[in-house]
C-alpha cells in the first residue's frame, strides 16, 4: 500500500508569498529588519530579511540587475556575513519599490 505524500511548502517560500501578496506587511517587515541592522549581534537577521524581500519582489537576479550590481554580489551582500554599502542598500531598496527614511530615536515630549 503506497501513500502519496503531498509537497510541503517551506516556511521561507510561504514567507515570500505573504510578503509579495501584502505590500504593507513587506514594509513593516523591512522596518523591523532595518532596526536590526543597527545592532551588530542582530545584523545578519536584517540582511537576510532584506534578501527575503528581494526574493519576493522580483527575485535576486532581477533585483541585482535593477540595482546595477551582479547577482553574486547581491547574494554575498545579503548574506548573514554581508556588509552592504549605503549605495548598495539604497539601490536594493529602490529596486523593490522602497526607500530609506529617518525618524527620531526619541520622540519629542510635549
Automatic annotation (TrEMBL):
InterPro entries per record: HI1420, Lambda_DNA-bd_dom_sf
GO molecular function: DNA binding
Record PANTHER family: SSL7038 PROTEIN
Name recorded for this polypeptide: Addiction module antidote protein
The organism of origin for this protein: Gallionella capsiferriformans (strain ES-2)
Organism classification: Bacteria, Pseudomonadati, Pseudomonadota, Betaproteobacteria, Nitrosomonadales
Amino acid at each position: 500500500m503506497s501513500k502519496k505524500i503531498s509537497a510541503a511548502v517551506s516556511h521561507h517560500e510561504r514567507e515570500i508569498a505573504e510578503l509579495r501578496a501584502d505590500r504593507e506587511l513587506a514594509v513593516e517587515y523591512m522596518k523591523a529588519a532595518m532596526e536590526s541592522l543597527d545592532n551588530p549581534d542582530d545584523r545578519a537577521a536584517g540582511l537576510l530579511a532584506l534578501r527575503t524581500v528581494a526574493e519576493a519582489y522580483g527575485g535576486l537576479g532581477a533585483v541585482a540587475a535593477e540595482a546595477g550590481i551582479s547577482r553574486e554580489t547581491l547574494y554575498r551582500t545579503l548574506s548573514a556575513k554581508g556588509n552592504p554599502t549605503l549605495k548598495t542598500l539604497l539601490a536594493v531598496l529602490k529596486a523593490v519599490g522602497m526607500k530609506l527614511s529617518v525618524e527620531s530615536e526619541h520622540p519629542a515630549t510635549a
